[in-house]
């Protein structure tokens, strides 16, 4: 019985590690393939969004909030760290995959709404959306 429990524990632990690495890989794919190109498009529409390298910044009336994706060179595989930077100098490392996904989804949602509202050319609505972040 102990061997069976140990085998189940080892298999579950292995699946848990694979699930976490897959979610980070999906997050990297979402950032590279969808979020960053969207940020570049929105940056062409308004000067309140900046997409440069692996940094996406949104300028709000209260300051700037930036999402930074940087390659972690301390591990032998391709792995990226995500950070949230504020204009007050706070740096929040997004080490939890759930929190990183929430932040990326929020940036994606805000940028998508700005792009949709830019078609109507309503600057006040765009400012309100960006200030929500």
Largest sheet: 5 strands, antiparallel
Residue runs with pLDDT of under 50 for 5 or more positions: 2-22
Please compute the radius of gyration using only Cα atoms: 19 Å
Number of helices: 3
Order of helices and strands: HEEEEEHH
Overall structural class, as computed from helix and strand content, comes to alpha+beta
Task: Note the gap between the termini.
Answer: 52 Å
Mean pLDDT: 80
What does this protein look like?
The chain has 133 residues and is of the alpha+beta class. The radius of gyration is 19 Å and the shape is globular. It has a five-stranded antiparallel sheet with strand order 1-2-3-4-5, covered by helices on one side. The protein contains three helices and five strands. The model is unreliable at 2-22 (pLDDT under 50). It has helices at residues 2-45, 97-118, 123-132, and strands at 49-52, 55-60, 63-71, 80-86, 91-93. The chain starts with a helix and ends with a helix. Helix 1 packs parallel to helix 2 and helix 2 (97-118) runs antiparallel to helix 3 (123-132).
What topology does this entry show?
Elements: H1 2-45, E1 49-52, E2 55-60, E3 63-71, E4 80-86, E5 91-93, H2 97-118, H3 123-132
Antiparallel strand pairs: 1-2, 2-3, 3-4, 4-5
Helix pairs in contact: 1-2, 2-3
Keywords, separated by commas or semicolons:
alpha+beta, disordered N terminus, 133 residues, single chain
Task: Briefly summarize what is shown.
This protein is α+β, with helices and mostly antiparallel strands and 133 residues long. It has 3 helices and 5 strands. The longest helix has 44 residues, at 2-45.
